[in-house]
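Sequence in, structure out.
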Amino acid sequence: MPLFPELRPRRLRLTKSIRDLVAETTLTVNDLIYPVFVREGIDEPEPIDAMPGQYRYPVEKVTDLVSRALELGVKAIILFGVPPAEKKDHIGTPAYDPKGPVPKAVKAIRREFGEEPVIFTDVCICGYTSHGHCGIPIEKRGRKLIDNDSTLKVIARMAVAHAEAGADFVAPSGMMDGMVQAIRGALDKEGFTEVGIMSYAVKYASGFYGPFRAAAESAPKFGDRRSYQMDPRNAMEAIKEVILDVEEGADILMVKPALAYLDVIRLVKENFPHYPLAAYNVSGEYSMVKAAAEKGWIDEKLVTLEILTAIKRAGADLILTYHALDVARWLREGYNPF
């Protein structure tokens, strides 16, 4: 192999046109899924203090947001429900209420827009329970535990309620063992064989979820979620989790969070190249960028595009990100900082 001065890698970086021509990774609006919070009992969008630029939307206003997203080219959303505190209970009964905020929002979007956008719905009971855990707590041998198997029955009913409303994909996020199998069985039994599952196959017990928990009002009232979400010190464990979800019927896989787990995204993609892989650019990652940009410490556009490009470069095919509408607008305006 020739060396300098014959070999000069900078030749391929000389101009922007050359750099664009040989770029290995390209971020497009088609890569983005926009997370949307739908709140019952409000009339106007409610700003989320911990997530500048994000809101909880009443069902009646969700179609306005979707219209704006579609105009910008964002054709996929994921819905999170926020029920009133007085409706929450120990087992998350409101999660499968067909008149709950998510089913109502899905129906409204379908009536207004038909097949677009692609609608994903989060399937987890943490936002619907009085205790804020992703599973049902029980007392066993003197210890308070999250009961895996009884939780599966609730999230299966939740998935069916979302499918009945018109969701394209349900997305179980509670990290319960067997959750994909339980949901697939329930969907198929009710005739929803066409409804897909995007599994939060690799979800870590992360410190980056704080703003989301404030937005969804889903922070646990006791303990933490480390007994069911993954240990941040582990990478190879992700392969085991993905194998199980693939065998149980997952259609799309996910790694969450994204930025601190780029190595895990790469690991999963290399081992499961034939499955679409999503990565969740989570609330803490979003809010850190917003806070630093507000202080004038970073260039928000440049840093956001750099982060999302890194996530895609690591192996993600889809990126769930609160930056989606901003990025779509920047790309439409021709912004390309690289």
